[in-house]
Design a protein that fits this description.
3 helices, mainly alpha, single chain, flat, about 65% helix, about 70 residues
Length: about 70
């Protein structure tokens, strides 16, 4: 337990130091790469679909994005 905590602390410290030493150009490149990865993941998962299970039909106000209040 202690060893894993120590390891994680050292890894985070190394990442922080690397981030501080990295130039602005390097940070910009990293942002572009992360945006590309996000775009690829969004294409792979497809559009978000609403849930249509039984619970969502009986209580339409509970649906995310419906804007209505739950029926009581």
């Amino acid at each position: 337990m202690f060893v894993s905590l120590l390891y994680l602390s050292l890894v985070r410290l190394g990442q922080f130091l690397l981030l501080r030493l990295c130039s602005d150009t390097g940070k910009d490149v990293e942002i572009i790469v992360l945006r590309h990865r996000l775009a690829v993941l969004r294409r792979q998962t497809g559009p978000m679909r609403r849930r249509t299970g039984r619970c969502w039909r009986c209580c339409p106000g509970c649906c995310p994005g419906s804007g209505g209040r739950p029926s009581s």
